[in-house]
Amino acid sequence: MIERLRGPVVGRRPGAAVVDVGGLGLEVQLTARAEARLPTRGEATLLTRFVVREDGVALYGFADEAEREGFDRLLGVAGVGPRLALATVSTLAPDRLRRALAGGDAAALTAVPGVGRKIAQRMILDLKEWAAEAVPGEGGEGQPAAPAGGAAADGPDAAFAVQALVALGYGPAEARQAVREALTQGAGEAGELVRASLARLGRAPVRAWDEGSAG
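-> structure tokens emitted (215 positions)
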């Protein structure tokens, strides 16, 4: 495993650089922030990840550990290869990526070239729990307690309700706010949350929602 490189940059092209390590020129695919930090003179130090796949091998470079961790996590999502993972952590800074995943913000993820809505939803489903651990107010430390008589604001029913509203065309922030307000009024099950949120948003449900929809 190649965890880090240090050496002079002997070649550059958009999104990549060649680093001389002990006389061996290693090409590294870079995030935007890692590329921006490359020195014009002297040695460069890069955190790296060496990826071996059926179609070849490649070395990827990151500006910091947070970028590399995001890359590693994304590689565990079905349908996400190293190039798409690199594009994602390059487009979205680590904090922004985790907030998008924790908050179910598919729109932010689809801003990444190559990420469609299905892949974005898969990323959210697989990585929401990991992302929420470090995002206050999205299920991590600092998350407010659940309203009396209602479900937890970061629970599965609330998460399902938010995703359902987003699927109906509402923005993630708007959907989350509507669900929070529904929770304060005592709605708890997924179906109740969706119906109550739609009523607050002023749109009738497109189809009948009930507890069976959440499964």
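Confidence is low (pLDDT under 50) at residues 139-152, 204-215.
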